[in-house]
Every structure is written in structure tokens, then in C-alpha cells.
Fold this sequence. Notes:
The chain is globular. The protein folds into two domains: 7-142 and 227-232, Jelly Rolls; 147-223, Orthogonal Bundle (Arc Repressor Mutant, subunit A), CATH 1.10.10. The longest helix is centred in the middle third of the chain and has 26 residues, at 120-145. Strands 2-6-4-5 form a four-stranded antiparallel beta sheet. Strands 1-7-3 form a three-stranded antiparallel beta sheet. The chain has a three-stranded antiparallel beta sheet with strand order 8-10-9. It is of the alpha+beta class and 239 residues long. It contains ten helices and ten strands.
Amino acid sequence: MAPLPDPRQNWLLAALGDAEWARLAPHLQPVMLALGQVLYDPGTTPSHVVFPSTAIVSLLYVMENGASAEIAVVGNEGLVGISLFMGGHSTSSQAVVQAAGEGFRLPAAMLMEEFNRGGAVLHLLLRYTQALITQMAQTSVCNRHHALDQQLCRWLLLTLDRLRSTEVVMTQDLLSTILGVRRASISDAAGQLQRDGVVRYERGRISVLDRPALERRSCECYAVVKKEYDRLLPDIEAT
């Protein structure tokens, strides 16, 4: 029999104190998140927040003409749906599953009740939000000023950190949507990494063979984001 999913694979849930855990745990619902699944669209108010455990979710900004680009990635370090407790309720971004896996849903009302209590949960969520905003800002700068191969390396490193794996399963179409470029450009950038022995690139799958080389080829944006998460969430560790 397969083991039951563990909510505390998610760093934020793992960081809850005993009292907060006792209040929230009965309301956590395990969910399977499929590759390409849309969790919410721009302008909507999510009914639940999602705490990924083994899945990864991309937050995308979608233009009027349908073009889009990733502004942040959320995995087992965070949650999807910060607009609920930041006061805006609805969101301008789209949330799409970029790596299939498990997660846990929590009714929005339950999170808001806990947030409004103040104390540890409020401070935890605000620190996480600050780290997420840093990632959004750095991604914007990266997309504007750095070459596609550097952006791809940054994206791979952020994704691998959240997967705890050396392999990413990803369709070319979804990757081109995430990075906001043509499929052919993705093939060229990934192909060069493969020729240099950094990754093995197959249709729908990227395996990292040399992580130190990947880090050297990335721009500084990966290190900036990682440093901020480590600074703001130093006491969080998934079980």
C-alpha cells in the first residue's frame, strides 16, 4: 500500500506550531495536480489556497493577446493564493501546474481566520510573501536583461530546488509559455546545454548532468532569489 501524502512535505505547513497545526490539519485536503492544470485565472478569487508538496506551480502574467511569461514559481516551499491574505482577494496572474505531483488544498476562509489571529502564522506568511515578491522582481529583470540560455539555467535551478530531483518533466509548449519565447528558441538553448554536457534533453524531459556547470552558466538572478528565501525562511524545513 502506498504511503499517505504528508502535508509537512510543504515547508510552510512543516513550520506551523502545534496549536496552528491542530486547527488547520483537519481541513487540509490532498489533491493530485496534473501537468498543465490551471489552478486559477486572472481576475478570479480562489476558493482555496494550495500548498504544493511534490508538484510545482508557475505564476504567469497573461497579456490581452494571449502571450504569457512566468513571474514566479511555487513549490514545496510555499503556497499558491497569496492574494487572499494580502487584501486584494482576486489576482492578476494565472497559476498553472508546471510539474505534476501532490499538494494540499485549504479553504480560503480557514487561512484567513488563521491569518487574522496574528502571531506566528501571520509573520510566516508575510516573510514568505516577501521572498516571493523578490523572486517576481528578479524574474522581471532577468527576462529583460539576460540571455535565454541564462534564463533557462535559472529556471531549471529554481525548479530542481523544489523537486529535490535532477530531472524535470516538461512539454516544450509549456516551457515556451513559461519563458515567453518560441519553441524553437527553447530547443536551441536546451540543445546547446546538451552539447556542452550540462543536461540531457529529450522530448518532454530535461535531466541535469552537471549542476555546478548549470549554476556557473546561470545569471546572478538564481543566487539572489535563493539567498532571499534562505534569509527570510531560515527556520523552515520540510520533514
